[in-house]
Specification:
Elements: H1 11-16, H2 25-34, H3 41-46, H4 55-60, E1 89-93, E2 96-99, H5 127-138, E3 145-148, H6 158-169, E4 176-181, H7 183-186, H8 193-198, E5 205-210, H9 219-230, E6 235-240, H10 249-261, E7 264-270, H11 285-298, E8 306-311, E9 316-319, E10 325-326, E11 329-331, E12 337-339
Parallel strand pairs: 2-3, 3-4, 4-5, 5-6, 6-7, 7-8
Antiparallel strand pairs: 1-2, 8-9, 10-11, 11-12
The structure holds pyridoxal-5'-phosphate.
Pyridoxal-5'-phosphate binds next to strand 1 and strand 2.
Length: 350
């Protein structure tokens, strides 16, 4: 069912919904003038205005600290620009490429690593730019997979997204199309039969759902995920480890279980990229590794994402543990150590 209520796009909208006190409007307007603000009705409904530490509000409500970047923060933290041969393409790995046809989002996450590029006035590729981007992919025989991301590709009209995936479907070397989106959670009414019909191609379409807190998988979001899987689209879960949102291992466990219970296979747990003004979300790597150890010790193998770090400068993603092999010994899920002949003594073997 399409949600006909309007998104909250201005500080006044937040105040009118009781999500911020009126006296915070001036500060929040300064932040929103720099980094765009949007909350869909579905996301606003998830917020408990009485909770000053609400994990949903924390992800989407602007905060004055966003305008105080730390010294080690970077406007292009994962080096997209160094690997962009034409507008709308990021090509870092030989077998797969990112296509970003639209840099608008249904909601603007306050920790976004592309916060300097999303939400602008020129945020949609023109017809000519899109043709050039598709030509780039068409000419390269080694591109096995196209990851359509953004922004959020499900912000395109179904016909526009349908035309893009149909063009990719016609390229013999492209064997997999992957969409990355917040829409199933933030605006589930956009997952329509029309959209699903356009994604029904000979080339398999996978969809990675960005989801950071178990509460985000509310009934309407769960129903959108069900429609996607019924349409033959396998779902992956993509989570960013965020202080004050999901850095509690018990919350993370609930999130991973909620995803699997909704047919979403947890794929990546991302360590936060150092985008400007995101320090309030940062955790240490050791905390992420401890959370992963907790998951391994308690939950089904289906609930285990890979914890990854995107190396600043454009060097790509790497798994960052935890490591279970040290000094001639292997650690089991309960923390007990065992000898294993293949693990070299005296050092870590990861
Ligand atoms: C994250 C990313 C991908 C996808 O990586 P996977 O490990 O296949 O999910 C591809 N290209 C770029 C530039 C990326 O940043």
């Amino acid at each position: 069912m399409a949600d006909r209520r309007r998104s909250l796009l201005h500080p006044q909208d937040l105040a009118a919904r009781g999500l911020i006190p009126p006296e915070a409007m001036v500060d929040i307007a300064r932040v929103a003038a720099r980094y765009r603000l949007a909350l869909t009705p579905a996301v606003a409904d998830l917020i408990d205005p009485a909770d000053p530490a609400d994990p949903i509000a924390r992800q989407f409500i602007p905060h004055p600290e966003e305008l105080q970047p730390a010294a080690d923060e970077n406007p292009d933290p994962i080096g997209d620009a160094t690997h962009s041969p034409v507008k709308g393409i990021v090509h870092r790995y030989p077998d797969r490429v990112l296509l970003t046809p639209i840099l608008h989002c249904p909601v603007y996450c306050r920790y976004c690593f592309r916060r300097e590029t999303v939400g602008g006035d020129q945020a949609v590729l023109s017809a000519g730019e899109l043709t050039l981007a598709l030509d780039y992919i068409r000419r390269r025989d080694d591109i096995w997979e196209v990851v359509i991301t953004g922004g959020d590709p499900l912000m395109l009209a179904p016909a526009a997204l349908g035309a893009i995936v149909a063009a990719l479907d016609a390229m013999a070397q492209v064997r997999v199309i992957r969409l990355h989106s917040r829409v199933p959670i933030s605006d589930p009414g956009r997952v329509t039969d029309d959209l699903l019909a356009r994604l029904d191609l000979a080339t398999p379409v996978w969809l990675a759902v960005h989801c950071n807190h178990p509460r985000e998988l509310a009934p309407a979001a769960a129903a959108a995920c069900r429609r996607l899987t019924k349409a033959g689209i396998p779902l992956l879960g993509q989570t960013v480890l965020l202080r004050g949102v999901n850095d509690d291992p018990l919350i993370l466990e609930q999130l991973m279980r909620a995803m699997v219970a909704n047919r979403i296979k947890p794929y990546y747990l991302h360590h936060l990229d150092p985008a400007p003004g995101t320090a309030r979300f940062r955790t240490g790597l050791a905390e992420g590794q401890a959370a992963m150890r907790h998951l391994r010790g308690r939950a089904s193998g289906l609930c285990q994402p890979t914890y990854v770090l995107d190396i600043p400068g454009g060097h790509g993603k790497v798994p960052v543990g935890p490591c279970y092999l040290h000094d001639g010994r292997v650690t089991d899920w309960q923390g007990q150590q065992h000898d294993y002949p293949d693990v070299a003594p005296g050092r870590s073997s990861c």
